[in-house]
């Protein structure tokens, strides 16, 4: 019950935070002088193409870029009606991309959930690798297992991702016949989800997951090892041994549970850093994630497109932190019962 | 009858270094208690842990034989494999540890942690284990076993947690219980009750106990046999009664001489006259507001100190005695101006006799700087109160630097003079704190506090982290310095025996309230308040003929609402202090 109330409370704060973020995002995008259209109009005027100017002027009015900034913001979010009534983010209208001359929704549509899929896969990979490895390294600290784990981890941290990507593609293709580039076979693009398409996506995910996840997994392994070593020195571990627990059961039930908290707290941070950190990898691997699109949009001041993507990343982060906060409350009774009368 | 456990020629060491336990042999008879006594570094803990092989990873048992003659016949424990050893741990031999606060996992319910023993060793189902565990909880004195079963450790007090630990150790009905300083971290009244509980359980089940302790008083109350250890060797061993009444080994004699004792007093002392109080507290209250975890819940109020009126006479020592949570440390902070009392309270400090008083709770910036020169503090934990990255010399001269007193060489000269006064050598000034033992560090803390020539020292449990023999030395040093520098002490302690040694006047606190106040001798001659009586009765005396009086402890150690009618008080209203004789005040209904 109390967990449920806490979740509701966190939802509320999340909505408020999102609102603040939207103001910031909008302000930052509008910091550089001019906007996409006025830049274009200036350019067209200079080259004497007046037909294009009329179209651009029309778009300026259509998307309220001629309005004062605060009004633009309200219209963008959907608090105020624009020329065509209420149609902002809240109403599900994500705006128009001037660069690609298509609605934002069309451009990001597929890559939106592919981004989520790739990053989720990477997070799962990180946890799947870091958990057993970190635990093992701590339990057998100062042994060859520990040192090997550290070596592998540092290699993982130090190797540039795109290089790793190229190497993996080469050998993956040579020995395992793994596909190169993309997130699915080109024939499935734009097709509805079928069993075959899903299979194709899964096979294509192997290399990107590995590439994006390695450094995160390395860092997390080392952190878990350090946390576990701290916990292993605590008296409750002795109590557990004195009970007659086997070492493995003892490790998993007691110190791991305690050392696990920082891990859970990390979920929120992992998501955004991977979206922005995997841009280069996405370009190299030809992944249709949102990263490369964001890069283009920011470079060309394509404000609705970049604004939407930034909002999307913020939403991912907030959802991530919310999930980790709620999980923490469920996992750790000390947080759950804080402030409860004894 | 063969002994239950035999340890022969045990030798344990770390890495390539010299052995820390050498040639230790003893026997634990059935149904009786053996006490392993020694100070820190004596090897007593390592010895007891080697029985179940719960040792630091770098420790190795180099030689020796440990034979256990329990329910499964004669087993040589030192030859068991790790897997076989697991079956002994928690079943035939179980263990309880020193710190109940940290010996239970914070993330698992008590019931789960205790039941686990039965799941492992009996293959019990959740239901069966629960039934047995609830019965065990009842035996260790939990009023509401069901609630404890569902609780997390942080929801219980220290004494309750140690009871839960004992239940965990007892639930498999072991032949031998190893208790490693089981009551050291507990309040003295709780200690008395936990010791009583272990004794009762032992009588009921006929198990043997190995009790590891540094406290001869605990030994006298609990053990039939004693092994005195020092630097890894057995100094003296045998039956408790002869050793405790007439120790033959010089080291044991030394331990006895150092053990603090509540003195037997023949007559009350005269009132401490109040002519020139250096520190006066009037109607001091302190309420903390605990922010609720969520916005819509009201904040909670914690009343740490309530209605305290105290005066410290110049050149005297006023001791504030109480258990954890009694508000004594908060009071010390208020006296030093580190916390402000609630509005209406007043703390007055007179730096010189007859001088203008400073209102400590309303100081200007200049007054505060001046006040800090005059009033200094000695902290409890000498291990964390000195910066490990600062040379002793820098730590000592820092106060002078902050206040801009003297030149560099004058500061260094002063540091050299003071370090000799506290019994260390001036060539130690270049060292870092880690090169000093606990007692030496506490000497350094005292030297640092004296650097500014204060007139008032607030000592917050200055000896409770130290071994008894070191405690004795530090107390002597504090006395000597008080007389030499004409200091006044506000002495905070939980230990009446320590207080008996140094204090002129004692105020006993409970739940933020002073319940009894008297000159030290008067208090021990004629304690009136049930809580004071409980504190005195709970103090374990190193004398087999003066066992702890558990009935008196039980009468006064409970909550103020459970005290006898005349003394009882609740949350909001409490009786006034009544003067019994000059200088002796007791809080009771008249």
What does this structure look like?
The complex is a heterodimer of chains A (342) and B (590). Chain A is an all-alpha fold. Chain A has a domain at 106-301: MetI-like (MetI-like fold), CATH 1.10.3720. Chain A contains 16 helices and 2 strands. Chain A has helices at residues 2-29, 36-47, 50-62, 69-77, 104-139, 144-158, 161-176, 195-232, 235-243, 247-253, 255-259, 261-277, 279-285, 290-299, 303-331, 333-336, and strands at 96-97, 102-103. Chain A has a two-stranded antiparallel sheet with strand order 1-2. In chain A, helix 1 (2-29) runs antiparallel to helix 15 (303-331), helix 2 packs antiparallel against helix 3 (50-62) and helix 7 crosses helix 8. The longest helix of chain A is centred in the middle third of the chain and has 38 residues, at 195-232. Chain A is globular and about 85 Å long. Chain A starts with a helix and ends in a 6-residue tail after the last helix. The mean pLDDT of chain A is 83. By secondary structure, chain B is α/β, with parallel strands linked by helices. Chain B folds into 4 domains: 1-92 and 175-259, Rossmann fold (3-Layer(aba) Sandwich), CATH 3.40.50.300; 102-173, no CATH class; 277-511, P-loop containing nucleotide triphosphate hydrolases (Rossmann fold, 3-Layer(aba) Sandwich); 532-590, no CATH class. Chain B contains 20 helices and 22 strands. In chain B, helix 7 crosses helix 20 (550-557), helix 15 runs parallel beside helix 16 and helix 19 crosses helix 20. The longest helix of chain B is centred in the first third of the chain and has 18 residues, at 188-205. Chain B is globular, with a radius of gyration of 26 Å. Chain B starts with a strand and ends with a strand. Chains A and B meet through helix 1 and helix 9 of A and helix 2 and helix 3 of B.
């Amino acid at each position: 019950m109390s967990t449920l109330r806490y979740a509701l409370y966190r939802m509320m704060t999340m909505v408020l935070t999102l609102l603040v973020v939207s103001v910031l995002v909008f302000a930052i995008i509008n910091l550089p002088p001019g906007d996409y259209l006025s830049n274009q109009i200036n350019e067209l005027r200079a080259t004497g193409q007046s037909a294009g100017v009329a179209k651009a002027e029309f778009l300026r009015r259509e998307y309220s870029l001629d309005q004062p900034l605060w009004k633009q913001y309200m219209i963008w979010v959907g608090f105020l009606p624009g020329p065509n009534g209420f149609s902002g983010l809240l109403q599900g209208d994500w705006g128009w991309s001037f660069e690609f001359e298509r609605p934002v929704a069309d451009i990001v549509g597929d890559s939106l959930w592919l981004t989520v899929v790739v990053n989720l896969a990477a997070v799962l990979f990180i946890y799947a690798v870091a958990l057993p490895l970190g635990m093992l390294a701590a339990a057998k600290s100062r042994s060859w297992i520990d040192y090997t784990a550290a070596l592998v981890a540092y290699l993982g941290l130090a190797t540039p991702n795109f290089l790793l990507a190229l190497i993996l593609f080469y050998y993956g293709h040579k020995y395992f016949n793994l596909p190169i580039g993309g997130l699915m076979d080109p024939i499935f693009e734009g097709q509805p989800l079928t069993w075959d398409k899903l299979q194709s996506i899964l096979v294509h995910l192997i290399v990107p997951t590995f590439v994006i996840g390695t450094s995160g997994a390395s860092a997390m392994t080392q952190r878990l090892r350090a946390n576990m070593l701290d916990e292993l020195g605590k008296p409750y571990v002795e109590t557990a041994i004195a009970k007659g627990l086997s070492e493995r059961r003892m490790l998993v039930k007691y110190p791991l549970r305690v050392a696990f908290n920082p891990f859970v707290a990390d979920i929120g941070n992992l998501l955004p850093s991977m979206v922005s950190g995997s841009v280069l990898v996405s370009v190299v691997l030809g992944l249709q994630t949102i990263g490369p699109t964001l890069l283009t949009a920011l470079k060309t001041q394509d404000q609705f497109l970049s604004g939407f993507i930034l909002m999307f990343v913020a939403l991912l982060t907030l959802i991530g932190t919310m999930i980790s906060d709620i999980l923490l409350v469920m996992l750790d009774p000390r947080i759950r019962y804080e402030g409860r009368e004894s | 009858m063969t002994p239950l456990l035999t340890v022969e020629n045990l030798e344990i060491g770390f890495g390539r270094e010299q052995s820390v336990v050498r040639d230790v042999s003893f026997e634990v008879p059935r149904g009786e208690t053996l006490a392993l006594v020694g100070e820190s570094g004596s090897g007593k803990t390592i010895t007891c842990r080697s029985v179940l092989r719960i040792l630091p990873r770098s420790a190795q048992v180099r030689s020796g034989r440990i034979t256990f003659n329990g329910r499964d016949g004669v087993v040589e424990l030192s030859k068991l494999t790790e897997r076989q050893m697991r079956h002994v741990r928690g079943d035939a031999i179980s263990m309880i540890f020193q710190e109940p606060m940290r010996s239970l996992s914070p993330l698992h319910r008590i019931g789960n942690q205790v039941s686990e023993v039965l799941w492992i060793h009996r293959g019990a189902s959740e239901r069966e284990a629960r039934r047995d565990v609830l019965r065990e909880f009842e035996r260790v004195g939990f009023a509401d076993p069901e609630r404890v079963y569902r609780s997390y450790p942080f929801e219980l007090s220290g004494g309750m947690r140690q009871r839960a630990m004992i239940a965990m150790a007892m639930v498999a009905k072991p032949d031998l219980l190893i208790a490693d300083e089981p009551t050291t971290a507990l309040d003295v009244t709780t200690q008395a009750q936990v010791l009583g509980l272990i004794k009762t359980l032992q009588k009921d089940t006929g198990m043997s106990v190995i009790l590891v302790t540094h406290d001869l008083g605990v030994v006298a109350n609990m053990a039939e046999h004693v092994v005195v250890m020092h630097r890894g060797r057995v100094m003296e061993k045998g039956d408790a009664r002869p050793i405790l009444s007439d120790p033959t080994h010089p080291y044991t004699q030394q331990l006895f001489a150092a053990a603090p004792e509540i003195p037997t007093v023949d007559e009350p002392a005269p009132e401490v006259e109040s002519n020139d109080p250096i520190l006066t507290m009037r109607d001091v209250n302190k309420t903390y507001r605990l922010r609720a975890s969520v916005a819509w819940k009201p904040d909670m109020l914690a009343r740490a100190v309530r209605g305290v009126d105290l005066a410290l006479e110049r050149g005297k020592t006023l001791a504030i005695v109480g258990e954890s949570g009694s508000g004594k440390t908060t009071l010390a902070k208020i006296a030093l101006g580190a916390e402000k009392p609630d509005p209406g309270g007043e703390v007055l400090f007179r730096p010189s006799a007859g001088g203008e008083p400073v209102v400590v709770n309303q100081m200007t910036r200049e007054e505060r700087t001046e006040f800090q020169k005059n009033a200094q503090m000695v902290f409890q934990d000498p291990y964390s109160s000195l910066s490990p990255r600062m040379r002793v010399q820098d730590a000592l001269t820092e106060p002078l630097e902050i206040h801009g007193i003297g030149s560099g060489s004058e500061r260094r000269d002063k540091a050299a003079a003071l370090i000799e006064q506290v019994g260390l050598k001036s060539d130690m000034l270049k060292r870092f704190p880690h090169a000093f033992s606990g007692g030496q560090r506490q000497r350094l803390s005292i030297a640092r506090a004296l650097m500014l020539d204060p007139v008032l020292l607030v000592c917050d449990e200055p000896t409770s982290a130290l071994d008894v023999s070191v405690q004795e030395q530090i107390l002597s040093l504090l006395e000597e310095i008080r007389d030499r520098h004409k200091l006044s002490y506000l002495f905070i302690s939980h230990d009446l025996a320590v207080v008996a040694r140094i204090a002129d006047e004692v105020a006993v606190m409970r739940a933020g309230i002073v319940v009894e106040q008297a000159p030290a001798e008067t208090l021990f001659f004629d304690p009136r308040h049930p809580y004071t009586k409980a504190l005195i009765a709970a103090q374990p005396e190193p004398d087999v003929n003066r066992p702890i009086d558990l009935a008196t402890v039980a009468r006064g150690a409970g909550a103020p609402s459970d005290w006898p009618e005349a003394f009882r008080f609740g949350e909001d209203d409490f009786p006034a202090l009544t003067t019994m004789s000059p200088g002796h005040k007791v809080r009771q209904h008249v």
